[in-house]
Amino acid sequence: MNKSHDYDKILTRLTTILQRLYSGETLSVTELAEEFNVSTKTIQRDFNERLIRFPIEKTGRRWRMQQGFGIEKIQDIDNLLTLQILETIAGSIGKGFEARSKALLGKLKNATQLPIQSYLPIEDITSHAALFSLLESAITSSTALRFNYHEKPRLVHPYRIVNFDGYWYLLGFEPKSGLVKKFYIKEIRGAEPTEHSFIPDPKLKERLEGALNAWFDPNCEPFELHLLAKRAIVKYLERRPLSPSQHLIARHANGDIEVVIKATSVPEAVELLKTWLPDLIVLAPTFVKEAYEKTLSLALRRENGHDAV
After folding, report:
1. Keyword Transcription regulation, does the record have it (predicted)?
2. CA dist 295 to 65, 245, 302, Å?
3. What is the C-alpha to C-alpha distance for residues 292 and 300, in angstroms, rounded to an integer?
């Protein structure tokens, strides 16, 4: 079996599975797990999460492409765009990774040149691929890790690798402090697995999935953020929600909408709001509205050449 870097393995596995599905094969989770030397849980995650946007379906204990989606149908724009994004991510991760993935992605795209270019500023992690492999293995097996971070020894229960604004982080629970922390992966030193396993907290896993950006605080109970979205951005929020927790509560005659999402901290909320200036307005809670207005006021003072008061 190819012993290439872990993220190389993931992309290779996914593209190989897709290629076989589009070619008309029906695939078994157990057989794929044995073929790729991973757990059946990993393969199930491939189908249920990583490949969820593709027209696949489960029939009995096997997976297949839905009827009418053979290899000749791969030119569907949603699938092509997904493959283009995968290719862009591969290039961002590192040149070596990009070269190894391009041939497989090329086969899936069926040699079609797309008029699409995705710009995803993801930092190059080629030099840290071994660390990524170790971290994912520990997360999958729920194994505690030891490493040094900012010149301090840490014992951490790893939960998830995430990318915020192009930068890679490990989210993990630190038993000593009793807190969930974000660790910038490129600053982790001397990581090694321990002999101790842990039982993941399902509530914590759910909370981590709702993170809006790097400013989220997994140690705080989420609060509701009531927002007014102006008509100019409504179509974008309908295409891609601000958060998995987003739900519509009102639609106004002028085209504006009101939505509610969950946030864990004021900085997390403010950072999201800044992205949609001036078309996303805070209705509640008051403490977020005030913090946002203070941030805007400070920005205007500095823009006009005045120091903060």
Report:
1. yes
2. 50, 25, 11
3. 13
